[in-house]
Amino acid sequence: MFVLVQNSSISALSGSPKSVRINSNSDGFIGYNSVINPIVYEKSINVESQIRTFFNNLNTKMCIIDEEEIIGYLLTLSKDIDELIEPFLFTNKIVRDTFQGKIKIFVKKYDDPETNDHFISIDIRQNSYPENFIEQIWKVRDIFSEHFQNNDWILISTDFHPLS
Predict the structure, then answer these.
(1) CB distance 142 to 95 below 8 Å
(2) 18-24/30-36 β-pairing
(3) Model pTM?
(4) Number of other CB atoms surrounding residue 91 within 10 Å
(5) How does pLDDT run across 103-126, given as a tens digit for each residue?
(6) What whole-number distance in Å separates Cα of residue 152 and Cα of residue 158?
(7) What are the Cα distances from residue 60, in Å, to 30, 120, 158?
(8) 120, 106 Cβ separation under 8 angstroms
(9) How many CA atoms lie within 13 A of 35 on its CB side?
(10) With the CA atoms of 4, 5, 10 and 15 taken in that order, what torsion angle do they form, in degrees rounded to the nearest 10?
């Protein structure tokens, strides 16, 4: 199963709609690749419905906590759909490439009561936490930050809860 999402900024440059193909495999990786697709999307498809479709597919590999709250927050960011989706896909890939063994990824909106900051927290959980677990989290954060230098709305972390 895959979802195609139009990237209107690219299509305006190339003259053809550009899409992102989202797919998953048995390893739990949800991947993406850019393809030029001749399908012309109707303008009536809005960002919110595209995010909902994306989360419906993502929910098989990541645990989405309070989807409505996350979607509401994402809509306040005033970003194109590809700018909202790609960080989740990229994070899924680098987390699964970095951590060995059984893991779960939890996605939730976090509201810091002290600073009034709001962001999406992507928490990585395992059955047990080795001594180098935090170093692995920092490695994932560094890779993410290099790829998304202007992203200040996703935090990759852990809550040290067990998988269950």
Answers:
(1) no
(2) antiparallel
(3) 0.72
(4) 24
(5) 999 999 999 999 999 999 999 999
(6) 17
(7) 9, 18, 19
(8) no
(9) 14
(10) 60
